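Hi all, posting the design record for the shared folder.

TITLE: backbone redesign
STEP: 1 of 1
STRUCTURE INPUT:
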């Protein structure tokens, strides 16, 4: 069941819809609690933002509210969720939606549904229990950034329900850290969090934004940011 609220962006008021079961998560994102911008430095008027795991578009909308001239690319593999994402964002300028997942492999792979089939729990990694799924197209994040032809990414957001490690290692095996200024990354599990901090703290300063053993958000940002 969808719930709809009115949002005003770029002097335009429009409807934003989301699964009612995920209201707490959506409102937390829209209120800036999940991705606070206090430690993010963006100097360009029209920053480039990449949103991996866009779900229904709450994070994209939050970034647009704060950076109205941003050029944003969103990636959402689940077809039904992608259609909702498109409906929510089709009135925004300079927002491109992509119906695919980003992973460390290119091809056709199974997107596994989580408990209760909430859209925010779908993952390319397998869950302990099979709750169903669908086959989706995946691409490499490094390819998407290299297609920018040398333009830096001002802000990268990754929320991929457990596949964040594979994406980060693939990404930085193929591009230099100076190509990305800031990264919001949602981790799943304390072991994963500690490994990400240890492996990437030589490239970035790291700030734990939302903390927890099972789930939280890390911000990686460049020294000069």
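Okay, here is what came back for every position:
SEQUENCE:
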């Amino acid at each position: 069941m969808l719930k709809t609220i009115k949002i005003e962006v770029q002097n335009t008021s429009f409807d934003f819809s989301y699964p009612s079961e995920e209201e707490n998560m959506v409102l937390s994102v829209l209120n800036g609690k999940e991705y606070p911008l206090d430690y993010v430095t963006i100097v360009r008027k029209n920053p480039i933002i990449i949103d991996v795991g866009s779900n229904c578009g709450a994070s994209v909308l939050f970034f647009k509210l704060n950076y109205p001239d941003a050029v944003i690319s969103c990636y959402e593999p689940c077809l039904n969720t992608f259609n909702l994402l498109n409906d929510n964002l089709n009135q925004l300028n300079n927002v491109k939606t992509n119906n695919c997942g980003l992973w460390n492999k290119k091809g056709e792979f199974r997107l596994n549904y989580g408990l209760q089939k909430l859209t925010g729990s779908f993952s390319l990694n397998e869950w302990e229990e099979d709750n169903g799924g669908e086959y989706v197209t995946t691409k490499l994040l490094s390819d998407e950034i290299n297609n920018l032809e040398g333009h830096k990414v001002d802000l990268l957001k990754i929320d991929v329900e457990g596949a964040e490690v594979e994406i980060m290692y693939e990404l930085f095996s193929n591009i230099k850290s100076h190509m990305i200024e800031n990264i919001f990354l949602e981790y799943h599990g304390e072991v994963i969090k500690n490994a990400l901090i240890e492996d990437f703290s030589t490239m970035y300063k790291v700030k734990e934004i939302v903390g927890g053993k099972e789930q939280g958000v890390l911000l990686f940002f460049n020294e000069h940011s």
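COMMENT: The helical segments are 23-30, 58-66, 79-89, 141-146, 164-174, 190-200.
Let me know if anyone wants the other runs.
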